């Protein structure tokens, strides 16, 4: 664990303020759920809660199946990071922070389909221009946008309508899985 040197007091209602610098760095926004852990040493640990992260193994298997069917790279994200990847180097993508562009698309519940090679690239990872989204569909569960399904390409060819439908179907399916 990394010490920040910041000390906060608990108020009379049991609340503690998480400093703005930490919220900004960790991308914690108002209304974001936090999971609370304790250990035997008396430490209290707050971790950003990812509802879709609970589907980790299932999401990995789903990404692998989509990649095999399409022959494309596929990743599944929550609102902050990649939680499943197939068809590319897992070491380079898995559990890495998503780019602000992808984060905004998820937040706005917007899909992204690269229709022409000349279209603006939407890079998947923060601080990396190696992988970009050819097709992105947000995962919506109980009215909330909780992640995305992304097919990524090499920039030379555009994804077919079949791959677009696969990504859309996967996003809807994963959203429904979260509702159950």
Task: Describe the model.
By secondary structure, the protein is an alpha+beta fold. The chain has five helices and eight strands. The protein has helices spanning 20-25, 56-70, 90-93, 100-107, 161-179, and strands at 34-38, 44-48, 73-77, 82-86, 112-113, 122-123, 132-141, 144-153. The strands form two sheets. Strands 3, 4, 5, 6, 7 and 8 form a six-stranded antiparallel sheet that branches. β3 (73-77) and β4 (82-86) form a beta hairpin. α2 (56-70) runs antiparallel to α5. The longest helix has 19 residues, at 161-179. The mean pLDDT is 87.
Topology:
Layout (H helix, E strand, L loop, with lengths): L19 H6 L8 E5 L5 E5 L7 H15 L2 E5 L4 E5 L3 H4 L6 H8 L4 E2 L8 E2 L8 E10 L2 E10 L7 H19 L1
Antiparallel strand pairs: 1-2, 3-4, 3-8, 5-7, 6-7, 7-8
Helix pairs in contact: 2-5
